[in-house]
Design a protein that fits this description.
About 60% of the residues lie in helices and about 15% in strands. It contains 5 helices and 6 strands; from the N terminus they run H-E-E-H-E-E-H-E-E-H-H.
Amino acid sequence: MDLSYDGILKEARERMQKAVEHLESDLQGIRTGRANPGLVDHIKVDYYGSLTPISQLAQVSVPDPKTIVIKPFDTTQIGAIEKAILASDVGITPVSDGKVLRLPVPMLTREQRQKISAHVKDLAENQRVAIRNIRRDCIKHAQAAKKEGLLSEDDEKSLEKEIQDLTKEFEGKVTELANKKSEEVTTV
């Protein structure tokens, strides 16, 4: 761990950015009532004994707002892909014609929308907590650097303020992402 002023600040920024990216990744797989290739990104298929993402086994496209089309590169794997989708938490039953799988994305009920919106808020809060934990860790590093004589007291105070500013910035990004996804889910 680099206990210099810039090193601690860089670590804080990188770790907080990863928290935001993690939330973006989690939100991609949430159903909004509209077809989105991200709905099947996390699904892994048993491909000759190894778990492989669908995107590596097939072309995933969205021809219209209510349908996801999965066209396997190897049509012999269509059954395995269908089985993986059925076993996943997507909640969509694929329709197969032997060459492609079509996933009709059903409309969400008001109750489902509220549950999904609440889940989005929980995911966002988890990342806000992660960002605050990163702030705490980096402030501890700043205090340790001051004890070791690597930072002056003024530098430590200045660094703590910059870490707090970063925390606010990244919490804002998390809130923005969550609000955008909640709006997608709740608007019909």
